[in-house]
Amino acid sequence: MKAVILAILIFSAVYATDVGGKLVLEMKKDQMQHKSIPKLDLSQVTVILEGEGMKYVSYLYSNGVVKFTNVPVGNYIMRIDDVNFFYDSFAIEVFKHKDKEVVRAFNYDIKNGKGGQIKHPVIFSPTIPKIYDEIKEPFSVLSLLKNPMVLMMLVSLGMVVLMNKMPKPDKEQMAEMNKQMGGFKMPSFLTPN
Predict the structure, then answer these.
(1) Model confidence, pTM
(2) C-alpha–C-alpha distance, residues 118 and 103, integer Å
């Protein structure tokens, strides 16, 4: 029994703290550009805290709060997976300072890495909705002209028109050309009637 209590005390001595945030349900008016913005469904929102070889997954409480307990000292990335919206990610630093665990949060994006420091617990808000349907382009006559089959038809039609505009050969010219070629006989479909 004493060994179990000693093991619990040793594991509780590891520096760990709580990391959390809150989801704000409003979107800014300039972000509402698409006509069919889906409703925010908290049951489909997953919050992920990754780093130091560990991955913590949590869901939101009904008031939009998320809390990861006993997070050990280290660097983490907190992000939200949602079916309907994109969210900003945050870099989280948990470290020990004077026998106390301190949590610092920073803006984070994949391209630039860690940004400016922000308050902890972090506040998540949807940035833009995920749009799964493809917006259909309106009909345009110019789009028909970009089609390769239509281009081939137009070139063929142009050749037919130009061939009809060519001058017809004379019988005299044909006979003279025939003599110059040494008695070569032209096929009947090439000679004029």
Answers:
(1) 0.57
(2) 11
